[in-house]
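Appendix B, record 7
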Amino acid sequence: MAIYKQITPEQLVVLQQGVVAGVDEVGRGPLVGDVVTAAVILDPTKPIAGLNDSKKLSDKKRDALYDIIIVNALAYSVGRASPAEIDQLNILHATMLAMQRAVAGLALRPQRVLVDGNRTPDFDGIAADAVVKGDGLVAAISAASIIAKVTRDREMEALDKLHPEFGFAQHKGYPTKAHFEAIAAHGVLAEHRRSFKPVRQALGLA
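Structure tokens (predicted):
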């Protein structure tokens, strides 16, 4: 696993040349569901206006950009790791696995991968760099953050329809007061991450 090295703005410009995949994750903090990652290779002839860190965009803007990205990107792919894998590997290593799966799923092999954050997994010999706050600095990472965020949010909304008493459409599985109260009232679901302390406590394992 490669660790972040300080990258200057000038170096970042160079790193974005050629066929570059941006990678980002969503869902490291929630108590329930998969950690979801995305890899996106943008088409330099089809620039997309408005790309940014998905957390800084409204739901409406994210959904609109999601549709634009999947139509105009050269390639995109979603990877994930399940709650069982998170429990087995821990959330960091499960996230790295999900990133590897996203890049492996691309229809076009990139020359370089740029990952949001401070570390990267090995991508089958593809050069990779970690970019701190990359989802606001690198368009391809911004696009990946949007794809991952919209994908996971929609999965939480689907889970909410199965278990409306948990309120997943509102808190998206994050450890909020409402989520804690739902666990206390209704117990732990199969989709919960049993290695996370609040879930372990609810199960009487902590």
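Remarks on this record: The mean pLDDT is 94. The chain is about 40% helix and 15% strand.
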